## 1
Amino acid sequence: MNPKPSPLKCRSYYVTDLIVNANPKYNPAKPTRLEFRDLIVDAKTEQPENEDVAHVWRVFLKISQNVEDEKNTPYNFTVSLFGSFDVAKDYPQDKVQSLVEINGASILYSVGREVLRVAMGHGPYRPLFLPTVSFVQPQPPPVKVVAGNLEVAPPQLGTSG
């Protein structure tokens, strides 16, 4: 695989909030019963209002977990991050927001995941390793009109659906 420059350039990012709480009731001899839905990830994107920088985007990401003691997790946590991104001026305008929402949030999630691992690594227990996530939103199935009625078209070969 040969990498190529991304049309999304990360200008800067930083952590705006970090809380890691060790669970004093955690028992390393018992299994941890965390599920994917215990992880809460919230991403938001926006453009600055200044029209002179239409190619600049901001991404805000919050990753948190706050579960009850019965889950036997070593830590609960929150990390919030901010990132500033440039989109290549020649990138298709109809794809810009999707590029920022998917790639910008993915970049910040990777940063947050590592920040949490390092912070937990300085705690009394082994750090949690956050799962990988995808910010790609499923597309609704295509709709076609047949004899005046709407029906869902089956996915075409070679596409996801």
## 2
Amino acid sequence: MTYKISREEAQQKSKQLKYLIRGVVEGTIDIPNNSLVFLDAKTLIEVFTKRRAELLDYIQQYHPQSVQKLASIAKRKKQAVNRDLRMLESHKLVTLERKGRTATPRINHTYIIYDLSRQTAKS
């Protein structure tokens, strides 16, 4: 899922990202390997509903071999789980490894970070 942002929002995100990258390079910000970083609450809230977070937990804990198995573990309809997995996949949180008609969900990132600093690089 994508959404449109204004030019000002894009510039703000760009500044935040530059600040974050500079901090990582200079060693003032430590981000673990295999991390996914969110720069804004809008995206974080869009991606992380309670049910999607539960799916990530179930994938990590049970390593289901199919979406159907994950739906069974979560006690949810397969269609709803598929919809949530597509959202998580669009944000690179999970990968659906397809083999024939079966898709196996896999987690892509060990850490998820939300940047609360709101500091930006100087223009």
## 3
Amino acid sequence: MSELGGMILSLAHQLDDAERAELGRLLRSDRVPTPSGDVEPLLTCAEAACRAQCHVETIRRAVARGTLRGSRAGRFLRIAPSDLDNWLRRTSRCQARPPNDRPTRRRTSSSPMREALALLERSVA
């Protein structure tokens, strides 16, 4: 067990049953208090990616890099909506091009297969 985990356990033993129950409820909660005192629900990575209109892995990488603040509840990663909004304001994302605006790939007329077929046709004729 980590040093922090040991400290939390020793402090939890000093609480009475009602305080211990409240602490457990807060630790399991998917809500986080805001500076104004309100409580906002935390987002999963999938919900954050949906709001940001990006891939889930983009959210996970941003948290791993430290550019987006996230918190772990066990093995689950949660993100406060305000943190996601701040990250989106700070992050410059390139705009996706419309599908018909993508550059077309040119086909070369001299592929190895075409050259082999042309050589075969010349040898047969």
## 4
Amino acid sequence: MFRSTQQMAAECRSRHSVCGGFALAALAVSVLSGCGRSVKLGEVEGTVRLDGQPIGQVLVVFIPEDSQGPQSTGITDGEGRFKLRCNNARSGAVVGPHRVTLLDAAVAPGGRSRDDEPEEGAARPTSRVPDVYSRADKTPLRQLVAAGTQSVTIDISSDRKPG
């Protein structure tokens, strides 16, 4: 059974001290093909910044343009830093071009899909990350992963509208 990215992010939010384990669990659940030894990976760490400031509790997902490749994920810490991992705990992401999505784990709904209405009387939490960055089909974020070790900075703007 597959869980939504929002459900996995909610787990991270509720388990602040095990966000690294969350990223590993997210990979194990969401990736159909593994990051086996035959898949060439590049080590990727980086920082996510919103309007120039580091942002914590953001799920970072690298989705290979080659749909056969496995995704890699990481969660930003309080200083916006993350390190990507594949589903078998290997560090890194598949070498090649990727689409990058970001999900605000601090406000992800627990156990509900994005389209569900909030519970009666409850206000819908507002994501710090604009929706355009959380959708694989809309994100303008792209990153080329090379062999070896690399550090990336992902800068996003709070006023970015879907388009």
